[in-house]
Write a structure and sequence with these properties.
By secondary structure, the protein is α/β, with parallel strands linked by helices. Helices cover 44% and strands 15% of the residues. The protein is globular and about 50 Å long. The protein binds zinc ion.
Length: 266
Amino acid sequence: MKETAMPDFPVVFGICLDAEALWLAINPENAAKPVLLSHGSYAVREGLAPLLALLERHGVKATFFVPGITADRYPEAVLAIHRAGHELGSHGANHRTPVGLTLAEERAELLGGIEALQRVTGERPVTWRSPSWEWSANTLDLLLAEGVTVSTNFHDAVRPYRHLRDGKPVDLVELPVHWHLADAPFFIHGGRMERILRTPREVEILWQEEFAATHAWPGAFFHLTLHVQLIGHPGRLAMLDRLIGFMKAHAGTRFVTSRDLAAEIP
Ligand SMILES: [Zn+2]
């Protein structure tokens, strides 16, 4: 009888803990809107603890992206993530998009984010997510110069790959992301983001369908993007709980951090 190879299906959770930084970056005048900022504060006040408990219960290690301004404001939250064994990835100093920044501004934003996390955990993050999922023309050189070895920003594949410069592979792995595998398009409303909110059940069906189909693609992985302020609500956490159970029912599913998956890419 022919032996069937055990499938291997890595699953990465990239979870943003933006807190107020998201709203402040959209418009600095939001600093004068405490109610709008409270959408972000929810992440630390309510969402993080049950999300960490859920991940712990399922044995899931995730990658949490925390902007520098949020790490400075909530070091205990960063430490709780770190002590639970999750990876911390950098997410800029002030959640500013690299697009339109000068080279010096972009470097300061990148380094500010990295150093803020290093001050709290003692470890220098190697994974970076652009706050807008955008790169500038300078980004590749900056990431390579500052020792960032994992990027989670491009939308061009369902398989991890290594970036090239001048046609040659460099020390930077991409773990591609997709808007339909992110919570924000379905669960954010307020500020300048007036979207139609979706029910957890609708999103659960979408993510289950994508998961099952992606599982059948050789070499693919499943990359879910979450925000603590959005997913950390009771009904949505219950959906995530069911979704992880669904994932575990598929042969070969394993939960891995961005850094650890990138280390497997030749
Ligand atoms: Zn963010």
